[in-house]
């Protein structure tokens, strides 16, 4: 029953992401505040569930409310920062947040009294209403910036646009469909693979920690939950270091700009080593050590893939759809992960770990193919082989070319 409810949550989560980001582009940040308030109300209602039908309905509505939050917040960030600056911001926001949730979620889940649950949801709901006032609007209309700051922000946005404008084009079906390009699809499929292994590990981790010999005079459940904290803390450090140095190195331009992809590949190699240990050893301490590698690699790879795809998406409609499409398709990986670690495969979960080892290996290969494609496309533009895209176009059509403009260069 739990797996069915979780799967239906992901179904609505997936379906709502692209429409939600297009609504955000149209209505502004007030849309995010509405989603957060709805999420708080629905989460509060889970305290009063009495049957399976209620569980299914609340999980599906939670998926609708939560689905647009991640791509929406990333889209808001992209309106304030240039492409080379996004890697650090998304890395901190999206790379650190899942690890923080993983570090403290398990321990908090042991507090199962209804009054604590109800109190926590009421407190969170009150904070959600603040989002109506604190989430920044688009820089064109934001009241959080001074006149000088607004001018700088708009010039920064225009500098990243090949046609030198910060104006957002009208949303059309043609621009929406353009988001389904080779680069986006490759990143989305890689993100899906990364999500399988990271979400799967969150299911496997309690089993690993439970097999470690107790060493403290406390209940085994509490100690097992405490052991899940250190791997996530290390992954936070890894995410911050990688995001910071990716940003600094791309900004100074002293080495080839493919450093972001190198960081993704290194993180995926950590996953490969971690899952190889899971497969090759039954020693609980070796497996626990492998958790540090697998969680650190998995927690960062997804945000980096989203950053890379965002960096190579233009104009605004294409970028908004791309930011939603990649997490949307990637969430299919979470659905698959729910069904990879099944009770009949316990306690070693050979099938689940084999699948995760294969997915991180394939993801590493796809990242290298993505780098090769980006350099190939940029070379075509350098040699004038994409100039035909300007022929017979009006100025409006040229402005909407975005990443297809011959002067645009993908960021490897």
TrEMBL record:
Top-rank taxon, per record: Eukaryota
Keyword Transmembrane applies: yes
Protein name: Major facilitator superfamily (MFS) profile domain-containing protein
Source lineage: Eukaryota, Fungi, Dikarya, Basidiomycota, Agaricomycotina
Compartment(s) of residence: Membrane
TM helices/strands, residue ranges: 30-49, 61-81, 87-108, 229-247, 259-280, 286-308, 320-342, 354-375
UniProt cross-references to InterPro entries, sorted A to Z: MFS, MFS_trans_sf
GO MF term set: transmembrane transporter activity
First and last residue of the signal peptide: none
Its membrane topology: Multi-pass membrane protein
Main location group: membrane
Source organism per UniProt: Sphaerobolus stellatus (strain SS14)
